[in-house]
C-alpha cells in the first residue's frame, strides 16, 4: 500500500533528513489509509495513512494556527499532510533521543519499553518487505535486535524451504 504515497514520503524524508525507508516501513506497519480512523482504549484515535494519534492535534493547532477540526479532517483525509506530520513527529523524536533512529521509531508508537521494542521489530520486518532484501535501518540496531533479526531470517528460510518441499 506504500506506492501511492511514495512521492510524498520521499519529499518528507528528504526535508526531515530521515532514511528513505523509515516512513514507508511505518506506513506498512500502521496499515492506515485515507479516511481510516482507529479508536484506542484510552479514548484517542489514530488517523489516516500514518495513523497519527489525535493527541497531536493540540500541538499542531498551536503551531499552525488551524482549528482542531480542520487538523482532524486533514490528518484523516489528506495523505500528504498526514505523512508530513509523521515526518515532523519522527524529527521531534530523533531530537528527543539524541539521534537514535531506532529509539525514535519505537517512540513513534509508544514510550513504554516493551511496546516500543515490539514496534521496532515490526518496523525492521516491514523494512525487509518494503526494500526486498537489505535493511537500511540495520546499522542502527542494538546487538539484541540484530540477534532477533538473524533468528527471524533463519526461521523465514526454514519455513520457505518446508513450503517448497511440499509443492
TrEMBL record:
InterPro entries: Lysozyme-like_dom_sf, Transglycosylase_SLT_dom_1. Residues 17-117 form the Transglycosylase SLT domain. Gene3D superfamilies: 1.10.530.10. Pfam families: SLT (PF01464). CDD domains: LT_IagB-like (cd13400). Belongs to the virb1 family. This is Soluble lytic murein transglycosylase or regulatory protein s ( may contain LysM/invasin domain) (MltE). The lineage of its organism: Bacteria, Pseudomonadati, Pseudomonadota, Alphaproteobacteria, Acetobacterales.
Amino acid at each position: 500500500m506504500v506506492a501511492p504515497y511514495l512521492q510524498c514520503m520521499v519529499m518528507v524524508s528528504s526535508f526531515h533528513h530521515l532514511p528513505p525507508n523509515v516512513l514507508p516501513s511505518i506506513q506498512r506497519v500502521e496499515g492506515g489509509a485515507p479516511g481510516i480512523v482507529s479508536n484506542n482504549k484510552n479514548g484517542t484515535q489514530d488517523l489516516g495513512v500514518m495513523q497519527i494519534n489525535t493527541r497531536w492535534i493540540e500541538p499542531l493547532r498551536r503551531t499552525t494556527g488551524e482549528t482542531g477540526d480542520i487538523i482532524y479532517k486533514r490528518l484523516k483525509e489528506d495523505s500528504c499532510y498526514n505523512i508530513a506530520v509523521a515526518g515532523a513527529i519522527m524529527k521531534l523524536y530523533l531530537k528527543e533521543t539524541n539521534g537514535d533512529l531506532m529509539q525514535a521509531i519505537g517512540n513513534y508508537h509508544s514510550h513504554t519499553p516493551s511496546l516500543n521494542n515490539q514496534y521496532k521489530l515490526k518496523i525492521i520486518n516491514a523494512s525487509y518487505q518494503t526494500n526486498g532484501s537489505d535493511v537500511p535501518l540495520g546499522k542502527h540496531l542494538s546487538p539484541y535486535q540484530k540477534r532477533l533479526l538473524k533468528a527471524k531470517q533463519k526461521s523465514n528460510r526454514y519455513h520457505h524451504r518446508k513450503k517448497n518441499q511440499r509443492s
